[in-house]
Amino acid sequence: MALEFQRELAADNLSADEINNRVARSRERILSAPAVVILCVDMSDMDTYPDRRRKKAEYVMATQSAANAGMQLLLAAHAEGLGGVWVCSPLFAQETVQKVLSLPKTWEPQAMFFLGYPAKIPAVRERKNIKEITQFT
């Protein structure tokens, strides 16, 4: 994943120092996590449709279901006193992740979770008022 990340950052015209810093930070996060969970989507048991619109909708539903499972994982980890971080870097290196982890070809890596006991508990961030982000009609 690091090599693919380096290539993409170079294509974004970042400096060599910035590329090295970002790759090193990413590598350190992965290697220092007590547990790493890879979230995948598998379409093999999903409904199949002949048209593009419904195929896309089925894929979106599978992706939404996987994302919901990821959120449930983070909530369960939190309930057990664990900290968790969700990153989507496997999306940018799906084939590499499949190969390195010997995952079935039907498993499409979507996200990566770093789990462990937090060194410190961060301050709660201020949230927007519910009225600012909802609309009832």
Give the helices and strands, then pairings:
Blueprint lengths: L1 H10 L4 H17 L2 E8 L9 H28 L3 E5 L6 H7 L6 E10 L13 H4 L4
Helix pairs in contact: 1-2
Produce a short descriptive summary.
The chain has two domains: 1-32, no CATH class; 34-118, NADH Oxidase.
Question: What are the salient characteristics of this protein?
Answer:
3 strands, 5 helices, globular, about 140 residues, NADH Oxidase, single chain, alpha+beta, 2 domains
Provide the residue-averaged pLDDT: 93
Going across the biggest sheet, name each strand in turn.
1-3-2
Specify the biggest β-sheet. 3 strands, antiparallel
Shape: globular
CATH fold call of the largest domain: NADH Oxidase
End-to-end separation in angstroms reads 46 Å
Could you describe the 3D structure shown?
The chain is an alpha+beta fold and 137 residues long. It folds into 2 domains: 1-32, no CATH class; 34-118, NADH Oxidase, CATH 3.40.109.10. The chain has helices spanning 2-11, 16-32, 52-79, 94-100, 130-133; strands spanning 35-42, 83-87, 107-116. A 3-stranded antiparallel beta sheet has the order 1-3-2, with helices on both faces. Helix 1 (2-11) packs antiparallel against helix 2 (16-32).
